[in-house]
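Late entry, written up from scratch paper. The run itself happened at the end of the previous shift, but nothing got recorded in the book at the time, so transcribing now.
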Amino acid sequence: MKIAVLSSHTSSLFWFRMDMMKDFIKQGHSVIAVGSELEAEWRSKFEENGIQYKQLFVERNGINPFKDLRTYRELKKFMKEEKPDKVFAYQAKTVVHGCLAAKANNIKEVYPLIAGLGSIFRGTGIKNKIIKTVMKVEYRLACNASKKVFFQNNDDMNEFINNGLVQKEKVVIINGSGVNLKKFQPEPLPVTPTFLFIGRLIKDKGVVEYLKACKRIKVNYPEVRCILVGPFDSNPSSIQPDELQPYIDNDVIEYVGEKTDVRPYLKQCTTYILPSYHEGTPKTVLEAMATGRSIITSDAPGCRETVTDGYNGFLIPVKDVNSLVDKMEILINDQEKNQIIAKNSLKLAKEKYDVKLINSNIMKTMGIL
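Output as recorded:
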């Protein structure tokens, strides 16, 4: 069979969905990956893995209806020309327009993944309310055009069911994207307490809270290292370089920019921190768990699924810098406790988040295993 995998972000396809696409191919199927970034830049990278790549126009963060219409038309044309047997789509715009474009071409085997509801969906204010209303209509139409709908956490699933956006019998829960346990392996913890944040530098990821907490920690524990990995972003809530620079200049954080391979930085840390406001299931947390690191993350949709409080890390209230600092201090001052928690993280990664288990669930649901 021919399987199309759609995303509005090509690098996400390549780094987060490669294991899944390779498993599709191992079952004897062909895969076409569809993303927004240049074919000249990405085609050869996908082809090296036996995957065809097509570029799609999509404005990830915009709300221009004419640009969205262009995305729909391009996807509709793609479906007509390629005639995929099955479609897997994730990220808001490719879910909505991909599902509708498939329906317009009488493709019934459509499987969207709702991998976390963004800031617009959970936000407040008149503008947010209007956009959220439109998004609900779009999601309802997309789910109606789908055979099954994947969710990564119960909060998002219940939000959709309670708002009548998806029929309960269509829902399938999966434990995130999973983590490749061959690629991310346990590493010994360094002697110096070291904290790490990996992610786009947008406020919804909790990067501001991380920076504020690190600033306070460095006052009393100047030997502690605080590392920041990730790119600036086009998202409206992205922090700007001039906002980050004082933290760099004052040796609060070590900013290393965006990295395609985060393993060297996971190796350097003793604790991984993600104070995000909402997620699907954060892949960076799973990768940190697989390397045997304690976790501090938010008691928020998607994040809370990854941590049993006190077992493999700590859950903190959203936007609560004081609580974050408290938990960081506990792990700084009790290295033996951190060692135990880190081992529990690795155990949980193996038992629950192995990418092989996740992909098997996806393939069984899609009828390709």
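The chain has 15 helices and 13 strands.
(Scratch paper discarded after transcription.)
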